[in-house]
Amino acid sequence: TVTKKLLVLPGDGIGPEVMREVAKVVSWMERTRGIRFEIEEDLVGGASLAVHGTPIRDEVIAKARAADAVLFGSVGDPRWAHVGFDRRPEVAILKLRSELELFANLRPAQVFEALADASTLKPEVVAGLDIMIVRETVGGIYFGEPRGIETLADGTRRGINTEVYTTPEIERVARVAFELARKRGNRVCSVEKCNVMESGLLWKEVVTDLHAREYPDVTLSHMLADNCAMQLVRNPRQFDVIVTGNLFGDLLSDLASMLTGSLGMLPSATLGPVAADGRRAALYEPIHGSAPDIAGTGQANPLAQILSFAMLLRYSLDRGDDADLIERAVADVLASGLRTPDIMSEGKARVGTATMGDAVVQAL
Amino acid sequence: TVTKKLLVLPGDGIGPEVMREVAKVVSWMERTRGIRFEIEEDLVGGASLAVHGTPIRDEVIAKARAADAVLFGSVGDPRWAHVGFDRRPEVAILKLRSELELFANLRPAQVFEALADASTLKPEVVAGLDIMIVRETVGGIYFGEPRGIETLADGTRRGINTEVYTTPEIERVARVAFELARKRGNRVCSVEKCNVMESGLLWKEVVTDLHAREYPDVTLSHMLADNCAMQLVRNPRQFDVIVTGNLFGDLLSDLASMLTGSLGMLPSATLGPVAADGRRAALYEPIHGSAPDIAGTGQANPLAQILSFAMLLRYSLDRGDDADLIERAVADVLASGLRTPDIMSEGKARVGTATMGDAVVQAL
Ligand SMILES: CC(C)[C@H](C(=O)O)[C@@H](O)C(=O)O
Ligand SMILES: CC(C)[C@H](C(=O)O)[C@@H](O)C(=O)O
């Protein structure tokens, strides 16, 4: 029996509720799949602010570094709007990404077969949709300096943020995209706004050069971010892998996941560089947020969190078979007709968080 | 008979072709509506590069200043990719916006009744959709300094752009949004990314203060840009007026127009400040781009350009009645079943650019 160390960070809103359902899958695995998890749990976001006065403690960052992988819920809580920009709940995820150098955020946008009718798009436009967005997550305007709000002599205030991308930052995330594409549809679309931004111009150049040098077998195309937003609505199935910067990736990946009608079902992985000893920091989280409006009602969909755990098994623990089992169990549960309230798809029964989690374990 | 001075800038790709159809509407107006247009035409974008070696001459900017309004086609031509960032065709529109201080870009996203089936979204999600996006267009990351690409000592290159928004810049565009909302559904949604960017934080604060001070009768909400991208897909009819910065506005307005399935039919207006003498610089252009792939084939849809002219009549010449006539004629032509190839909607006849333009004049 192998033992793996996980850091579990449920966070705010529905985070703790959906994380409880993952615990059921974890104990099923320990019972049947010859693996032991050494799990540490800690507070982040508003939950950490309430107890420790900070959205994330250095100690938690250290634990994240020491773990084999981090399973993250979600952060964000309107009740903490008053604490100020530097201590807002979102700092927890931003700091984890930057401190652990988690630079490649993998966001699949997939239409589940049983839920082809859940999308607001016509079924013939989205059936079978399977896009992988690779979003850069430690650079760009999220982290560039200078930044802040300054007051000029005449009382006018200026808000400033800086978008910065360097050649190595662009190269390493593009490399992840090309590697993924080789295992999928072999096509990468690189997205920037090179007709307006020099950082986008550099992005396009670096991706083009890397492609010519190392990935000539992959089909590469380039698209402006505004056009990409349109094309995702017009004909989303034209895409295989999309690679883009932090800010465009934020909008485009949320847009792409909403196309599937299955926002409550989509996981993500955020990967760091591979270290000399082969270790790779990684964090797994649902695409959805903390959904404070439904927190505590027992209605949240736990599937995105469960599928994030499946991604963790696949990418961090090299247990693709176990991931397959979980993904198949989720598909079975959906096919059997269970639906949490967020799923806009006809089904046989509306169920809550716990019932959905139990059903997955049952299907396993 | 009044005389009005227009500067017509067809630009690249399909620009000149669709502009030719506007000329038909213009001469119909001169024949029947007691108005004379003094029209100057000039080159911009790749068309100007080819003749003058620059995407826009100072002389053209001066003419734009002197005109009652500017009717713009579109710029952008992949054949001019080699000229370098400072001379690319897009500089034409960016310079017109900044030199004339055209800070408020009004982009309606409307579903035409006859084309409710043209959207990739389900008809029940988009029927009757009528959103007005107000996008700031002379500030933000499009124009902020410092910007550029620099090479560091170790050979690494860095691409840099700067997002800057000041209190007065935010206030004046928010004011346009609130004023418009009062004539429509009385709701404004302000969109930024205040959980990540200080410029977004300032944006939100300024809009909130202005609302409390001067527009308490309008319903104001705030939304993060990534959530807005999702909500536009999930339930676009929740929006009335959206106000946002330059970059988010670029993506979100293209997304919103694609929801309607009528990209080739959507116009836009970009307005400057009202001067002491009551004059207001303004530019009208279709949402769609230069579409180099279909340029010269006679297949382009001229309706967005014609409707941009209608917007010009309404906003710059105070001739709302004439604008109504043109908009009604366009609706009639669509109802009669004519369709250019871009329209994904069942119709009676597929027609080209000129036939569509003639049909509009016929309907008038
Ligand atoms: C919570 C927030 C800081 C975060 C982001 O903007 O990256 C979220 O929207 C996401 O996409 O993971
Ligand atoms: C042509 C380009 C510079 C422009 C922009 O990004 O503003 C266009 O996409 C638009 O939206 O008008």
Automatic annotation (TrEMBL), chains A, B:
UniProt GO MF annotations: 3-isopropylmalate dehydrogenase activity; magnesium ion binding; NAD binding
Cofactor-binding details, from the entry: Binds 1 Mg(2+) or Mn(2+) ion per subunit.
Function per UniProt: Catalyzes the oxidation of 3-carboxy-2-hydroxy-4-methylpentanoate (3-isopropylmalate) to 3-carboxy-4-methyl-2-oxopentanoate. The product decarboxylates to 4-methyl-2 oxopentanoate.
UniProt binding sites for NAD(+): 289-301
Database matches in InterPro entries: IsoCit/isopropylmalate_DH_CS, IsoPropMal-DH-like_dom, Isopropylmalate_DH
Family: Belongs to the isocitrate and isopropylmalate dehydrogenases family. LeuB type 1 subfamily.
EC number: 1.1.1.85
Reaction catalysed by this enzyme: (2R,3S)-3-isopropylmalate + NAD(+) = 4-methyl-2-oxopentanoate + CO2 + NADH
Subunit composition and interactions: Homodimer.
Protein name: 3-isopropylmalate dehydrogenase
NCBIfam families xref list: leuB (TIGR00169)
Gene Ontology terms: biological process: L-leucine biosynthetic process
Keywords associated with the record: Amino-acid biosynthesis, Branched-chain amino acid biosynthesis, Cytoplasm, Leucine biosynthesis, Magnesium, Manganese, Metal-binding, NAD, Oxidoreductase
Annotated site, Important for catalysis, chain positions: 142, 193
